[in-house]
Design goal:
heterodimer, A: Alpha-Beta Plaits, two-stranded antiparallel ribbon, 2 helices, B: alpha/beta, Rossmann fold
Chain lengths: 74, 259
Amino acid sequence: MAKVRGAVVVDKEGCKGCGLCVEACPQQVLGLHRDVNSRGYHYSYMAQPEACIGCSNCGMVCPDTCITIYRVKL
Amino acid sequence: MDIQDIIKPENLVYQKSKIQVDVISHYCPGCSHGVVHKLISEVIDELGIQEKTIGVSPVGCAVFAYNLIDIDWQEAAHGRAPALATGIARTNPDKVVFTYQGDGDLASIGAAEIVHACNRGENIVVIFINNAIYGMTGGQMAPTTLLGMVTSTTPYGRNVELNGYPLKITDLIAQLPGVSYCTRQSVHTAATVRKCKNAIRKAFKNVMDKKGTSFVEVTSTCNSGWKLSPVESNNWMVENMFREYPQGDLKDVDKLIQQ
């Protein structure tokens, strides 16, 4: 049972769908959405939100700084 | 617990730095430039030097860096960023001056400028983005291109007899007495991004303490130029570039004095 829960907010329009955050996530939380944003990129989103631990790895590797991370201790 | 209960200002752990301008950058998806811009912004924010930092941008993809980081910028002619930074740093000794250069800019056309600026020990930070290619102009061979690496001007791979050896300019720079800190980092995983940020912070602190030139090479990817996906190009970099460009500190004057 996880002692911390996290949440990731991706700026949909800022995301370029490079997939580096998906690769960096240790919990396989993130995925690329099947829809596209206004510029035609498959943006990143929380595919499994309950698994997020708020480690901020995705935010660190994001080249477009479009990820904001929240974490709460349970 | 609902996601909306977690997304509250008091639970915030990571967000975009205030120094970064809230625009969508012109870089390709997955470009290492974006990560390094973010790290520079965060370091400037943490050190509280936004008002007294002057950046010198190169010719290359990072030429529009002034649109992305909210500090004072000066745009240099191709390769001449260290010469321009020398002038700025000497006439404004209270400012923190840094150059941001790619490998075509720094190691090829600007090789003379960087070697002499570092040899004089000018009080500047040099951020060197090494992606082994001329990214902006379409992926031509750069001095740092690996042997056998296919680029648009070496379609059969870089050949020693025709093109010579890859130039390890950071190793040359580390030999110069004016350089106080010389390191080679990368930004392909969260751990290396954190390490790279520490290196950039140390470089800026050295310049604030007037210790001489601080040189940070960031071994980077150019997925458009390499014709790979962002994730594949990170893997390619680890497999091939790290052999030629080993990671870690090459020189640190503080540690030399301690020994």
